[in-house]
Amino acid sequence: MLFTIIIGLRVLGKRGVKQLSVFELVVIIGLGSAAGDPMFYKDVGIMSSMIVFVVIILVYSLLTYLIGRFKKFENLLEGKPICLIQGGVFLIDNFKKENLGSDEFFSELRLKGASHLGQIEMAIEETSGDISVFFYDDENIRFGLPVMPGSLEYPLKNISKNAFYSCTFCGYTEEKQIGNAGACKNCGKGNWVEATNKKRIT
User: Fold this and answer.
1) Averaged over 157-161, what is the pLDDT?
2) Runs of H (alpha helix) within the chain
3) Phi first, then psi: what are they for 77, rounded to 5°?
């Protein structure tokens, strides 16, 4: 069964192993279930598992062919990439559709080398769950919401010095004067932190 798994994955190709979208994950789980039973239970014959393997691979090949031919079928089966950040600001409606916590997402951004949203021109969640991040050139970096650990722990509602501040909810950034911070023009929330415009260190 071990050799059968290896052969099956070779037949599926790199796409079935590397991307692991929802569709590929279902295929891998199916192959694992078919391989596991004859390994553990004597009354489960190898031939029946081989038949399951062949059926899964044939169905996978058919669906892959349909995905390549019909865009609507691909979107139905695998979903679409979704833009989460544009121009250094969260696209709130898109972000709500995804099962992402802010801490988890900030961690993903830090792993890509981002320390604040002002460095990011666009961030897209791919169908595989990976985050693609496109950065501004150094000369175009804006003030933005910091994403470093602890940076959002002490939000402000009153401004004590003139500076750029970012909404902790959506990342919208604007220059503020001393006094009441007011509500965010983008999302209506009222918590702010001081923004930063540091360049990326690569």
Assistant:
1) 94
2) 2-12, 14-18, 22-40, 46-69, 71-78, 92-97, 102-111
3) -85, -40
Helices 71-78 and 46-69, interaxial angle, to 10°? 130
CA distance 65 to 56: 14
| Rounded CA Rg of the chain | 24
Contact between 88 and 144 (Cβ < 8 Å) = yes
Better-scored residue on pLDDT, 77 or 107: 107
**Phi then psi for 53, rounded to 5 degrees?**
-55, -50
Q: What is the DSSP letter of 137?
A: P
Q: How many whole angstroms separate alpha carbon 177 and alpha carbon 11?
A: 63
Question: What are 38-71's pLDDT values in tens digits?
Answer: 777 777 777 877 888 788 888 888 877 887 788 7
Beta strands 163-167 and 192-194, pairing class: antiparallel
From CA 67, how far away is CA 35, in angstroms rounded? 26
**β 179-180/173-176 pair status:** unpaired
Instruction: Decide which of 104 and 4 is more confident.
Output: 104
| Parallel, antiparallel or unpaired: strands 131-135 and 120-125 | antiparallel
Rounding to the nearest 10 degrees, give the CA dihedral for residues 183, 187, 192, 196: -130
State both tokens at 6.
């290896």
